[in-house]
Amino acid sequence: MPTPRQPEPQISEAHVDREIQRRLNAPNSGARAFRNHCGGSWHGKGTRITPQNLTEQRAMLRPGDVVVRGGRFLVSGLEPGSADRIGWVSEVVTPELVGTVVARFLSVEVKRPRNGREEALQRNWADRVNRAGGRAGFARSADEAAEIAWGNH
Question: What is the DSSP letter of 129?
Fold first, then answer.
């Protein structure tokens, strides 16, 4: 009688991202990759609501809520669709600049090994970086990130 198939363990995108960070930022790798957090949040003077100050706030608030007074919305990251890891890869350019080391823009979008979807904005970003002479792509492992950085990508 066949044994039931065990489900494959899910590897998180965060786990893959940590592996990629260690690989690309290794000593003497010639690359640097930084985390590019994209998104937004409200900033201002925050007041945490507690049971003690709930009645002082005179609003429909609950313990644990945070009120931002004089708030402004702050957007961070490069632009929608830009990659999770950005940085550079140092390369030697020839023949005009023989022996000169230059940095090429590096953009690595981290995905889960299984079911990590590539969004249209992300694909557009990677295409634009590659057309401009940088190195961009999607990585589901440290090996795939290394291929983007140093391979014939």
Answer: H
Q: How far apart are the first and last CA of the chain?
A: 46
pLDDT 10s digits, 11-61: 999 999 999 999 999 988 888 889 999 888 888 887 777 777 766 656 677
User: CA–CA separation, 101 vs 99, rounded Å?
Assistant: 6
d(CA 108, CA 135): 8
CA 71 centroid distance within chain: 26
State which amino acid sits at residue 99. Answer: G
Half-sphere exposure of 98 (CA within 13 A, CB side): 1
The answer to whether the Cα torsion of 22, 152, 129, 125 is positive or negative is: negative
Q: Which residues contact 27 (CB under 8 A, 6 or more apart)?
A: none
Query: What amino acid is encoded at 78 in this protein?
Result: L
Helix and strand numbers (H, E) in the chain are 4, 6
How far apart CA 81 and CA 66 sit, in angstroms, is 29
